[in-house]
């Protein structure tokens, strides 16, 4: 009986282990995933990003944001990169992305360079993740070992992009909820908001704060009055949709200044200032900690970026390794065939045609 019990127990154990193991192994990312298949991937990505950022320092910020906007919509699966086709409704035209996302061409340049070295091996989702870590380093922020092995989605979801990406006018409760949906906690919210230590925002996202906060006809009271005047100069009411630095002090650097700005009411978006100006909020001590010690912020940023990079990843035999980041492979094949066909017909007919 004891033996029977033992056998059943161990059988159950085997079933449980066999049942669970493949799943958990499947979901496992690994920093050395491309060690044998594309050992130089990190340096290839770094070279492209470094070259672009010499001419366009803001690109570092844009690439980190692209990764965030990918991960919050059906996971880090490069769905944000898919263009509109007959079957794909691109996320790029979702409200938070439209006329705002940057870096899509840079990702394509990275992909071209990576494909040259190791064709068909590295996913676009991993390229976005690697480009983010490299952008952090080049922006003066932390480096970390990037878990890799993500695969690319076969679909995009514009509705989910509109639903899941937090808005700049969110209050703290709404921000926490948007992060909780992704399995991210309050510390992640504060640490990742720290990405607003660099980059730019369009005036349209702060006009309400400057001229008519929540329909009061007055500016946001949690905005420093000198900073308010400066922002009004850059963003006149009814004027052009100019760009404004997130960090007026060190606009292109990842550092703790974002948090010290919040302490003196110089957060740019309402969602930024909420972290410090919501009365009694548990985010206030976190802001204070990050502001007083940059290493504490960097450690938290690294941990939360890795956590964000793990959201809803496709591994194993799910999804695919896209050939071109803007199209699923089936579509890429059609495009290749179309190119070949048009090239053949153009050489026959002696005219240049393009798709
Ligand atoms: C907490 C909720 C967040 C809200 C409401 C928010 C909202 C925004 C908005 C409205 C912009 C300006 C876009 C434009 O004007 O074109 C922006 C820019 C940016 N966001 Fe966020 N964001 C949030 C969280 C994050 C997170 C988690 C990251 C990355 C980890 C991030 C990284 C960035 C960066 C780097 C920029 C500047 C991009 C550039 O200059 O091209 N944001 N964000």
Automatic annotation (TrEMBL):
It comes from the Eukaryota. It catalyses: 2 a phenolic donor + H2O2 = 2 a phenolic radical donor + 2 H2O. Heme b binds at residue 196. Ca(2+) 2 binds at residues 197, 247, 250, 255. Ca(2+) 1 binds at residues 70, 73, 75, 77, 79, 91. Belongs to the peroxidase family. Ascorbate peroxidase subfamily. This is Peroxidase. It comes from Glycine max (Soybean). The lineage of its organism: Eukaryota, Viridiplantae, Streptophyta, Embryophyta, Tracheophyta. The gene is LOC100804829.
């Amino acid at each position: 009986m004891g033996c029977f019990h033992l056998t059943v127990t161990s059988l159950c154990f085997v079933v449980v282990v066999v049942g669970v193991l493949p799943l958990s192994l499947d979901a496992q990312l690994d920093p050395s995933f491309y060690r044998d298949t594309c050992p130089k991937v990190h340096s290839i990505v770094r070279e492209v990003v470094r070259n672009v950022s010499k001419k366009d320092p803001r690109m570092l910020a844009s690439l980190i944001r692209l990764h965030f906007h990918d991960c919050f919509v059906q996971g880090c699966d490069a769905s944000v990169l898919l263009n509109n086709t007959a079957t794909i409704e691109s996320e790029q035209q979702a409200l938070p992305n439209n006329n705002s996302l940057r870096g899509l061409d840079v990702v394509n340049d990275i992909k071209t360079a990576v494909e040259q070295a190791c064709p068909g091996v590295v996913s676009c989702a991993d390229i976005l993740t690697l480009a983010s870590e490299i952008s952090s380093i080049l922006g003066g922020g932390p480096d970390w070992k990037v878990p890799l092995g993500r695969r690319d989605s076969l679909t995009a979801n514009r509705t989910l992009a509109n639903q899941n990406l937090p808005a700049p006018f969110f209050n703290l409760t709404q921000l926490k909820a948007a992060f909780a949906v992704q399995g991210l906690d309050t510390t992640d919210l504060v640490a990742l908001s720290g990405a607003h230590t660099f980059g730019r925002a369009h005036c349209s996202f702060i006009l309400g704060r400057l001229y008519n906060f929540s329909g009061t006809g007055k500016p946001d009271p949690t905005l420093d009055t000198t900073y308010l005047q400066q922002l009004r100069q850059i963003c006149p009411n009814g004027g052009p949709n100019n760009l404004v630095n997130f960090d007026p002090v060190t606009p292109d650097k990842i550092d703790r200044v974002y948090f010290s700005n919040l302490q003196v009411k110089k957060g740019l978006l309402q969602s930024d200032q909420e972290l410090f100006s919501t009365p009694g909020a548990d985010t206030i001590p976190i802001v204070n900690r990050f502001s007083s010690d940059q290493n504490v912020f960097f450690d938290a940023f690294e941990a939360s970026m890795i956590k964000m990079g793990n959201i809803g990843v496709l591994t194993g035999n799910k999804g695919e390794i896209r050939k071109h980041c803007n199209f699923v492979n089936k579509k890429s094949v059609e495009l290749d065939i179309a190119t070949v066909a048009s090239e053949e017909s153009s050489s026959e007919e002696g005219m240049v045609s393009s798709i």
